[in-house]
Queue: 2 jobs
Job 1
Amino acid sequence: MATAVRSLPTFENTYARALEELVLPWRADEAPNAQGLLLNAGLARELGFDVDALATPEGVQLLIGHGLPEEATPVAMAYAGHQFGGYSPRLGDGRALLLGEVVDASGQRRDLHLKGSGRTPFARGGDGKAAVGPMLREYLVSEAMHALGIPTTRSLAVVATGEEVVRETMLPGAVLSRVAASHIRVGTFQYALRAGGPELVKRLADYAIDRHYPEVREAGNPYLAFFDQVLQAQASLVARWMLVGFVHGVMNTDNMAISGETIDYGPCAFMDAFDPATVFSSIDQGGRYAFGNQPTIATWNLARLAECLVTVVDEDHKQAIEQLTAVLETFPVRFHETWLPGQLAKLGIAEGRDGDDELINALLKAMHDNGVDHTSLYRALATALRGDDAPVRALFVSETDVDEWLERWRRRLDAEGRDVAEVADAMDRVNPIYVPRNHLVEDALAMATAGDMSSFSTLLHVVSRPFEERPGLEDHAKPAADGDGPYVTYCGT
């Protein structure tokens, strides 16, 4: 039945039509008492929606998968994945649906996808539902990442279903509508290899190339060039995570998007005190997905993608493996090509020179040794350039460590001969003062779960403008108080 919502974008389904072996037509569960909690008006306009219409009861139903236009064909997407290193051959959208694709105002094709819309045949015993808290978390953190300039899926809306879901306690249910360049994952290729062999892998790769990396069609070996482009996108993405202290928390192969966007915000968080061993996920007992392990895990995941592409890269499998391995081994260099300039920019250094790596590593070691808050430190360095060292020195237990490093840093900046005020301003443009502080996120989610969205709305407003210091928001720029204990997140399933 056609929807009554006005000014809808055209829903397309190129993925489902091209790769029917990788989807299962399905419908979202009914939620007759659904109420909108959040709507991303700016994103809705980008996609061609009538914002006012989405706020109506009909619009809210559309945001949970009902009253769709006739051309929409919702599907659950199939994929496999290595979860904490163990292979699961059949995962898929157990509580999610791809409603379709829309072409946004810039001409980019984007998926419109639901999470928490009910059980599908991929549910693996789960209830198919989602609670308000985890869906608001994904909305908040994905929008914060977007504001930080980090490639990410976006959140369009959170709708309360009016139902309760069973977790440790009874919790109010919700559905998240999210938007992505696509939801093709490393795990999608793993599933395709098992389900259809090289022919299906080739068709999936052809689709992914046409959608994300059409320029590689001109390469001598487009499938090898495709792998190269995916690796480049992931190396850059993970480097950007590291620059802002972000810990994804669950870097399974089914949570790595071919497009290079951050996807699936479950047990994710931003570090307070700098520590490469930082882990937030309640189930990551061995620290597999710790902050400092993220580049290594990304490489490991890409090796699983390479295994899927062997047969399409070259009929001579030995030759294919050698070529793919040669690309894979460039990951550390590609990562460094984003990470080093990013670190230099955070320190106000315009042009890299020999010795900069050592300067950066000395700072990171001092931060780790002194338990220094990651976000606060980089922001305070600009204040030091403006003549006040006190905020930086106050972050360190050992003032000797910081004083020696500050002297070295100032000598390095002096060598460039730039205006100090301009350097400090440039640093403020790349070093956020506000990130989703973990204790504030938890407080806001607890209040929202109880029906009070005020703290969440404030926090969303703050992290949507992360570089702009504003009066009255001092508490949003501070880490949790000492003694609060380690922060732990849960996937919400």
Job 2
Amino acid sequence: MSAPTFEQTYAADVPELSTAWRAAVVEEPSLLVFDDDLATELGLDAAWLRTPDGVRMLAGQVPESWPTYAQAYAGHQFGSYSPVLGDGRALLLGEFVDPAGRRHDLHLKGSGRTPYARGGDGNAAVGPMLREYLVSEAMDALGIPTTRSLAVVGTGRTIMRERPLPGAILARVASSHLRVGTFQYAASLGRLDVLRALADHAIDRHHPTAREADDPYLALFEAVATAQARLVARWMGVGFIHGVMNTDNMTISGETIDYGPCAFLDAHDPRAVFSSIDHGGRYAYGNQPGIAQWNLARLGEALLPLIGRGPGGGEDESGEDESTPRPWPEPAEAAVEAATGVLAGFAETYDAAFHEVMAAKLGVRTGAEDDPEVRTLVSDVLALLTRERIDHTQFFRALTDGSARELVDDAAPFDVWLERRSALLDPDTAAREARMNAANPVYIPRNHVVEDVLGAATEGDLAPFMRVLPALRTPFTRRDGFEDLARPAPAGTPQHITYCGT
């Protein structure tokens, strides 16, 4: 057995954006849940991580010689700009390279106050940390790019929220924790060298082909926009609502990050909002593509000082030292036009990605997603689901199984829709069924079930949590005993409300 070896390339490449910090002391950490398969996939020694020394490491209890960092970033939160956010209760434990040569962060949430805590206590409760573990596992199994949860460790602390709750730390794995907000913070410093170093790090780590472009920083912007367009299209396909799409919650890698007030649709409704703080519906289900584009516009603004510039040489075009803080000059018209073009391209990429997702869900011919008849078929069935408040996941799985008509109250127009669809179906029945079975899950993290299992876990009973985990890790395979994950909440269930995990 052996301890992992970590690096800190981000802190070395862009030291201005990280603060060396230590986790709060945890006297007796306890392992609540651990993903052995993920550890093995990542090349980590699962057996060592389960030892007392491994569990202490997962709680941030590492030697003084081991550097750990809180990362700085800014962000637009519900449309309002906050110039300094950052890891208020989190630490970057380090980076490691898996057997496939991919670099990952191991990051802790709930590890204590940092200089970015903004009045928070730096703690996290068992329930929200287990929520992120459960939902991120489900998202990965659904084929959606996401951060992963390696472990949840109990801290033994009692933390105060609406009532006393048991404390926990989440050990999260991500391609990185670079966000749109990271670039906003770097741009706010007024130092071209810092912004350039951040962009170069992001290119090398996530989008290396951008380095070969005539304008690498514009190519970086385009690569991030493409990744986010495809990500949100996949969210929409499974009815996922992120709940808090602030710019500090949008990654440069294209992974889903931060599962606070997230939820999945029951009745299909573009206006669906579950977050207790989203009073205006800014982050409603149907608004997610537009919000992603808005967030990307903020990334474009941050990158404008670099767009159109070549590699840095220590001085900018005016001959001034790039490390000298100063207000940015008015961006060149060509840079603005180029960035605007990327944003326009986002809409086109998202539209194509969304209809590709929906074509698979409907079983129409491969490559037919651009057919106007297919697009009308998609819009019409989504209007039907909204009008009749039909469960999103249940409907598409029933369409796969041939029983969707049973869910529809007004059968006549649905029969007409089915007839139109039949003319567009993939003629290869086996291929069509396989494609639909892989696009339409049987199981999702049903909101009412998630709340029940987290409530039990908060009271010390992890058995309900462990019961649902296997089904959510194989969401396309029907199995006995998981009917509660395959259907919406029973009639009379109170409206589901989610909260930020702070």
